[in-house]
Amino acid sequence: MNDQNVNDTDNDNNKPEQATVKAEEEGVDEIQQFVEETVNDLCTCAVKRAGIKAFIDGEIKELCSCTGKISTLAIERDVITSSLYLPDVPSISNIVESNSGNLAKSNTSTYFPIGYTTSNLNDILSFDENDWTIMDNATDGSGEDKDLVSLSALDIPSIILDKMEDLFPEENNTLLKYGPLIGAIDEGTSSTRFLVFASKTAEVLTYHQIPIESIVPQEGWFEQDPKEILNAVIETIKVTCDNLGKLNINVSEIAAIGITNQRETTIVWDSLTGEPLYNAIVWMDTRTHSTVDEILKFGMRNQNFLQQLCGLPVSTYFSALKIKWLMDNVPHVKEAIEDKRCLFGTVDTWLIWNLTGGVKGGIHITDCTNASRTMLMNIETLDWDPKLCEIFGIPMHILPTIKSSSEIYACIYMNSVLDGVPISGILGDQQAALVGEMCFNNGQAKCTYGTGCFILYNTGPRKVLSSHGLLTTVAYQFGPKTTPIYALEGSVAIAGIGIKWLRDNLEILKDVSESTDMALSVGTEGEVVFVPAFSGLYAPYWRKDARSVICGLTEETKPGHLVKAALEAVCFQVRDVLEAMTLDCNMSLNKLLVDGGMTVNDYLMQMQSDYCGIPVVRPTLTETTSFGAAVAAGIAKGIAVWELDKILPVPCDTFNPLISEDVRNMKYSKWKMGIERSIGWVKSGNLADDINLPRMVEWDDDEAGGKIAAAAPAGLFLLGAAVFIAFSEFMRRRLV
Asked: Which residues span the domain enclosing 534?
C-alpha cells in the first residue's frame, strides 16, 4: 500500500460502521475476516487469525470517534496493555455486548474487536485507575446474576487466553509462545539480513543473510550496486518468511518492520524509472578529497567551520560531499536534477521508497539519525538547513522528508507476503546498536566492531560540540513530538577489514578465525605497531593525508606479530576515541558496552579492557544492531508490542583489566609514535592537510623547553656531521 492510500481517508470514513452492519448481517463466522480486511486497508489496526489483537489510534477519527482519545489497546498472548485518555468519560464501563457477540460497542458508537466470542457469556471490561474489572452477566442456573469480580491486570489475560485457546487451539500456539513478531532489515556494508524477533523473549526466531559485493574502480573508491542491495533485501525477506513457515510460525504474526542501515552511503536515482543514476558511493569512499578542499575555502581552511550547524567536520566521510561530487562529475545526474526527477537517499531511503511502491507511489523519507550524517541537516531543528544546502550547492527538492526514528511511516507494497505490514522504525546502524545495547542514559557508551569501529556516547538531550575530533550526532528520536537524544561519536575506518587485509593481501592468515592463535603464538615478545590508515585517519584525528605504517620490525618479527599488532590497533583506536570523549564531556566511562562480529573474539575483548583500563561488557544477544531496529519499530505509536522502560537487559559477559597501568601506558605511547609517523604521506598541495595536527604533538609551553633540550644532542650531531662532510669534500678537491 502506498503512502497516498494510507492517508486517503475520504473514501474510508464509513468503514467501521460498515464493518458492524455487515458483521451483524453475515454472522459471527465471517466477522473476523471482514474486520481484518477493513483495518488492514487503513494500516492502523492489525487483526490476526491466531489470536485477535487490535491497535486503535485515537487520532484516526474514522476508527475512534469516542470523546477523548484511546491511544492504544492491545490484546495479545499473555499481556494486556492499555493507555486510555477519556477526559469527558470517567471510565469505559458503558461498553456493552453487541448482537454479534464479537464486537464490543460503546455508547459513543466506537467499534473494536475484543478478542474472543462465546455463545452464552457476555463480558464487560472496564478500566479503573486501580484495576481491571470483569462483569459476568451470565447466570449460574438459579436465575440470579453472578457477583462482580474485581481482578488485577495480571489476572485478566488468563481469562481471555482460555477463550482464545478454545477458539483457536492450533493456530494460536505461536502467538501465545512468541507474541507478536517484529521484523528487522539490517543492511550493512558487507551483507544484508532480514531477522524476525519474538516480542515476548526478544530472541531471533530465524534470519537469512546475503553478502554484498563492493566495487573498487580505483584506489580510495568504494561503490556498491543499489539494485543488488535492494534485491538482497527482497530475497532475505522471502527466505526468512519461508523459514518461519518451516517452523510452523504464521508470517501474518509480523506486526511491524524496522530498518537499520550503513550510514552516509549515497544513492541517487530516477524518480520516473526507479533506476539508479550511479552506483552507491560507500561511506568509506575518499574520492572527494578535492571537493573537501573546495568547501574548506568557505571556512578559511577550518574543518569545523560548519560544526555549529550540523555537528560534523568537513570530511570525505559524509553524504553532502558525495552528492556534490556526483553533481560535478556525472552529467546525467546533473541533468536529472535539472529535470526534477533525481532523488537522493541514504540506504534506508532507497529501500523504503522501493518497498512501499517505488514509482507507483513509494514514500521518499529518511529518519533524523541518518539525516544527521549528511552534513545537510541542522542539528538543532532536525530539518534540512538552507545555508548548508547552499554551501554545497545541493537543491533541496532532491532530499527526502526527515521523520522521527519510531513512527508508522507506510506499509510494505511490493507483491510479497509482507504486503500491508507497516514500517515503523528507522535507525542508522550505529544508533541502532546504541538502542540495542539499551544505552538510554546519559553517560553510557557502546562500541560496535565490524568493518570499522564506531563508538557512541549518549549525551542525553544536550548537544555536545566536540573540540577533540568527535562528531555530534542524533542518537534517536522515538516519536515525532518527542525530545531528540544526542550522542558524541568516534568513527574508526579500519577494524575487521584490517584483519581481512592480512588474509587477502599479505596472505599470512588462511582465515580470520586464526588471528587469536597467531597472536598468542608470539606471546608478549616484540613491539610491532601497525597503524591501519589505508584511506586516512578518522576520529579523533581526521587526517586524510595519513597512510598505513608498520613500525618496530626486526629480524625476529613473525607473521604472528603483525596479526597481534592489527588486533592491538583496533583497541588503541577505540582508546583514542574514549580519551577524546572524556575530554569533551569532562567525565570518564566506568564501562564500555560492545557488539558486532569481532566481539566473539574473547582475546580481543580482553585486550580492549586491558588497553582502556575499564570493564568491557558484551551482551549474549549478538544481534544488537538488528534488535535496535526492531525496538524502534516495536515501540512505535500504533504498534506498541514493547514498552521502552520494560524491556529487560540481556545477560552479559564482562572482561576486566588484567595488566598494570604502567604497561598499559607504555604500549599506548608507542601507538602514539606510530600515529605521528603515519601522517603527511599524501600531499594535496594546500594547507588543508596540515591545519589539524594530532593532539600528541601539541606541546604545552612548560614541555617545550624540555623537548628542545632533549633534541639538542641530536641537533649538534647532525650539524657536526654536516661540517665534517663539507670539510672532506673541500680536502678532496684540493688534492685533485
From this structure: 453-678
